[in-house]
Design a protein that fits this description.
Blueprint lengths: L6 E8 L3 E4 H5 L6 H8 L3 E4 L6 H16 L8 E5 L10 H9 L5 E5 L5 H14 L5 E8 L10 H4 L5 E8 L5 E10 L7 E2 L11 H5 L6 E2 L1 H22 L9 E4 L4 H8 L14 H4 L6 H12 L7 E8 L3 E8 L1
Parallel strand pairs: 4-5, 4-6, 11-12
Antiparallel strand pairs: 1-7, 1-8, 2-3, 6-7, 8-13, 9-10, 12-13
The chain binds acetyl coenzyme *A (ACO).
C-alpha cells in the first residue's frame, strides 16, 4: 500500500419520504406497471418535497457520512458536490452545504459529470488526499431530478427519482481503500442526453418554457447501447489497471439506470452470481449522480464487508461520461 492511501472512512445517504409508484404514474401518463417493470425493473422512486432542494438532501446525507466516519464538519478541508440539479447555477450547492454543516475551513465546489459524478469525485478526492494537499474530503451527490423531469413524457418520466449520497475520504483511520478509478468521456455524443435550455446557449424564456426545454431529453435506445458498452469496457479496464480479475470482486454496484442495462453488464461477469450485483433501481429509480453512492451506503449498512473483499463500482451518464472504480475492504 502507498504511504498515503485514500480511503472511504464513512458513508451516508438520504431518500425523501414521498414514494411515486408505477400505479401513480399510470394515472399521469399512458403507461403501465407491466411496461415499466419489464422495460426498466423499476417499481417505485422517491420524490422530494416542494421546499426540499439538492442542498437539503446533500446536507442530510453528509451528516450521516460524518457520523459514520466519526469526524466533525470542522475537520473537513474540502467539500465536492456532484449534481445535475443544483439549487442554483451559482452559488454552488457545495457552498450551501458548507454553510449548513458549519464546515468553516472547507473549500467548496460543484462538479458536473451527470450520472458519473460520484465516481469523478471519488477520483478527484483520491488525488487530493494522496498528494497530501488535503486531509479530509467530503464527497456528496445530490439530485432533485423531479424538477427537470417532464411528467407529460412517458419515455422519461418513469425513470427518475430524487435522493442524495455522501462519503468522507481520508488517508487516516479504517475504511475502504479507493484502489483504482478509470474515467472516460465522449463529448461528440453530448446531444444524446441533454436539458436543452437554461444555460448560456439557450437562456430561459417564455418560448423555452412553452417548448418544455427545461426538462431531460434522452435518446433512450442509443443511450441504452452506449451505457452497456461503456460500463462493460470501464469495468474491464479498471480491473486490468488494478491487476485484478472478476474473481477478486465480491460485489458489483452498477449505475441504477435500468435493470436490463445492469443484467446486460452482469452477463459479462461469468463468476459473479446475480445476488452479488447490488440493485436499488426497483426502489429508487435512476437518481443520477447519487445512484451508486446510495447503493454503496445501503450495501455497507446491510452487508458489512469482510477483510479483503472488494467492490467494483461503475457508472454512465450524460456528457457522455463513464467510469469504474475498485474499493478494497
Ligand atoms: N410506457 C409505455 N410505453 C412506453 C413508455 C412508457 N413509460 N415509454 C416508451 N414507451 C413506448 C414507446 O413509445 C415505444 O412505442 P412504439 O414502439 O409504439 O414507438 C415502445 O414503448 C418502445 O420504446 P423504446 O424507447 O424502444 O423502449 P426501450 O425498451 O428502449 O426502453 C428506456 C426505453 C427505458 C428509456 C431505455 O431505452 C433506457 O433505459 N435507456 C437508457 C437510459 C439510461 O441509461 N440513462 C442513463 C443516463 S441518464 C442521465 O445521465 C441523466
Amino acid at each position: 500500500m502507498k504511504s498515503r492511501q485514500a480511503k472511504i472512512i464513512g458513508t451516508g445517504s438520504y431518500l425523501p419520504e414521498k414514494v411515486l409508484t408505477n400505479s401513480d404514474l399510470e394515472k399521469i401518463v399512458d403507461t403501465s406497471d407491466e411496461w415499466i417493470t419489464t422495460r426498466t425493473g423499476m417499481k417505485e422512486r422517491r420524490i422530494a418535497q416542494a421546499d426540499e432542494f439538492a442542498s437539503h438532501m446533500g446536507t442530510k446525507a453528509a451528516l450521516r457520512a460524518l457520523e459514520s466516519a466519526k469526524i466533525s464538519a470542522s475537520e473537513i478541508d474540502f467539500i465536492l458536490v456532484a449534481s445535475l440539479t443544483p439549487d442554483y447555477v451559482f452559488p454552488s450547492t457545495a457552498c450551501l452545504i458548507q454553510s449548513a454543516l458549519g464546515a468553516k475551513k472547507a473549500a467548496s465546489a460543484d462538479v458536473q459529470a451527470a450520472c458519473t459524478g460520484y465516481l469523478y469525485l471519488l477520483s478527484m478526492a483520491k488525488a487530493f488526499i494522496e498528494s497530501g494537499q488535503y486531509k479530509n474530503i467530503l464527497v456528496i451527490a445530490a439530485e432533485k431530478l423531479s424538477v427537470i423531469t417532464n411528467y407529460k413524457d412517458r419515455s422519461t418520466c418513469v425513470l427518475f427519482g430524487d435522493g442524495a449520497a455522501a462519503c468522507v475520504i481520508s488517508a487516516e483511520g479504517k475504511g475502504l481503500a479507493i484502489e483504482n478509478i478509470q474515467l472516460g468521456a465522449d463529448g461528440d455524443l453530448a446531444e444524446l442526453i441533454v436539458m436543452p435550455a437554461g444555460g448560456s446557449r439557450k437562456p430561459a424564456s417564455a418560448e423555452t418554457v412553452a417548448n418544455c426545454e427545461h426538462f431531460i431529453k434522452m435518446a433512450g435506445n442509443e443511450v441504452f447501447k452506449q451505457a452497456v458498452r461503456r460500463m462493460e469496457a470501464a469495468c474491464k479496464d479498471c480491473l486490468e489497471g488494478a491487476r485484478l480479475t472478476e474473481n477478486d470482486i465480491s460485489w458489483l454496484i452498477p449505475h441504477q439506470a435500468n435493470s436490463r442495462i445492469i443484467d446486460a453488464i452482469a452477463k459479462r461477469f461469468e463468476h459473479l452470481p446475480s445476488e452479488r450485483i447490488f440493485k436499488t433501481v426497483q426502489k429508487y429509480g435512476n437518481t443520477s449522480a447519487s445512484s451508486i453512492g446510495i447503493a454503496l451506503d445501503e450495501l455497507l449498512r446491510t452487508h458489512p464487508l469482510k477483510s479483503g473483499e472488494k467492490i467494483l463500482l461503475t457508472a454512465f451518464g450524460a456528457g457522455l461520461t463513464w467510469g469504474a472504480g475498485i474499493l478494497g475492504g
